[in-house]
Amino acid sequence: MAALVALAGCGGGAPAASPSPGTPEAAPAHSFDVERIVTGLDRPTFVGAAPGDPEALWALEQAGRVVRLAGGQRHVALDLSTVVRTSTEQGLLGMAFHPGFATNRRLFLHWSDVAGDTRVAEFLAGADGRAIQPEPVRELLFVEQSEENHNGGQLAFGPDGRLYLGLGDGGGAFDTENQAQDPTSLLGKVVAVDVDDPAARWRVVLKGLRNPWRFSFDPALAEMWVADVGQDRFEEVNRVRLELDEPPKNLGWSVYEGPERLPEREGGDKQVGSGELVFPVVAYGRDRGCSVIGGLVYGGIALPGLTRRYIYGDFCSGTLWTLAGTPDGGATDVRRDLAKVPQLTHIGQDADGEIVFASLSGSVYRAVPVAPAPQS
Predict the structure, then answer these.
(1) What are the structural domain ranges in the chain?
(2) With contact defined as beta carbons under 8 Å apart, do 228 and 238 qualify?
């Protein structure tokens, strides 16, 4: 459990009193069940589908392996374990398939190298899309890390076609170096790059983050949902409009944690930097869990009760919630579901847009309709 808690980068401290900023939690719901479909993986940090490979799921193992799961079989498509450092929150952390993967076989990985520094590189799969060539095509990013925690994790392509990456604030506690507000640093930011332009550079999209382990896009509304792991008081979910012609928006860390300004001794004496200040649409305290795992806006068909609802969870409690977005950019109707996923690390989608979950215990789960009650 200690390794589990460290991977998502939660802090310590007493429970927060308030579960959310203005979004009261509704009565528990039973919107779906979860069934375990894979066991025996080594600390999976990602599960999802690749374009053009509808019969398979792909998973990352923290120690450095990329695994393809299909037809009850598993195949190690790539083993980077000799160049990946696995300690607390470090390891193989993120994966994104190029939108044209079905034909161009390009994919991107984010990991901690043997020195503990951040690397992002492009790889190429073979003609059948199953095995990945062991040497990267090119390195896209190197970021020096001074601590073992707050490495971020998520890689994902946005609706604008750019590759996005979430990076933590450099580790430690309370961002003593003020990296998240420093415009010259990539730490504590969400950044993006056009991987189809060889001359493109990473640009800051969001700033003021502590450890954005998981985020996702809602292309229907050109929005980004970012779950930021908290320090002592709040786990938070942010809903941010993508306005690419505007300066980077600011989520407030480490002047604010969740909806509240930190006491001066913990960072509240700092000043918020430039950019429109965005507060979370949902936050919860340590009585609900200790490390938020961001999810996605559901667009599948198997669970009609979840249509257009955002699903997210907590790493330590295994709790899953869903909420509805409001037209003004907020959130309402927060529901804690009866279904749980222990040691939750990632919420992804299969090729049909149905929800799958990775658990650091080594399992992959699928969200399924609630089984009908037995007839008496």
Answers:
(1) 2-368
(2) yes
